[in-house]
Amino acid sequence: MAETTLNDDAGAENAEATAARPTNVLIVGVGGQGVIMVSKVMATLAQRAGFEVKQSEVHGMAKRGGGVFSHVRFGHKVFSPTIPRGEVDVLLALEWAEGLRWLNHLNRSRGTFIADVKRIVPPFACRNRADGAPLGYSRETPKDVLSRVRTGYALNASGMAERLGNPRVANTILLGVLSTALDFPEEEWLAVIEQFVPPKTVEVNLRAFGEGRDWVARHGEVGPDEEVDFSPPAGLETPPRRPRVFIERAWCKSCDICVKMCPERCLELDEAHIARMRAPERCTGCRLCEYLCPDFAIRVLRLPQDASEEEASA
Ligand code: SF4
Ligand code: SF4
User: Fold this and answer.
1) How much distance in Å is there from the Cα of 260 to the middle of ligand 1?
2) pLDDT tens digits, one per residue of 68-96
3) In terms of pTM, does the model score above 0.70?
């Protein structure tokens, strides 16, 4: 293991200063993308290499439409679990807008930006919820962003994962890219990944890791991936027009969150204190109630305008 853990010329120029400070990796995304798994792999890898490691994370708001992030710091001595703003060495984003949101934490002189161009539009981005309203999602393209960072990779990891037959391995593809920015042996990465993924998915995860590394070897640092269409997400600019809200009564714990947070005031609690629709005609299908329900009791479907009642209730 080299003194510096960054594959970075700037680090090599000043090895003493580099060795004295920890390496800072910030992993960001939204709920369900595997931010915590990436963070655990990173922390375990550094620990196996003999570094002191500190890790902190926030993921409690994931189901509520918020982001998930994890700080991993490792070095010969690490005093604080959180990375000071502007001191991130590698920012790894599993979702495009989350990457942009944390960009100002990246160190501009030595930082590396790695992002999936996957865009998950949170309900909060729909400031105007009327049919056909434009989204409040960032329009910044990989080209715009990569011109502002020292080293950057923007790739369609989610698309690559789908082609591998398992959309959930996008995070492992990004780990493959991350592995090219840090100085740990490839076999160590593979051993640690194997430790953290479900046994049935070991093979596809190891292939995904290799895909990430190959992608860097093929493309180097790139702007927009030619495979990526960066126009507004299809189907989101014009939301389907017939939302239907299904409430699983047995799962509702009467917390009232959906009633209070529905922007159109569509919901209420009935006599038994169970959520129900009181004004379905006002529902825009924004899915805020579905995202916010802590008990997964709500499901919002958007049906074609001409769906029959049978199709709607199927
Ligand atoms: S948020 Fe969920 S649990 Fe709470 S009242 Fe609404 S449906 Fe019930
Ligand atoms: S009921 Fe749910 S989907 Fe419909 S407008 Fe209210 S929060 Fe949005």
Assistant:
1) 10
2) 889 999 999 999 899 999 999 999 999 88
3) no
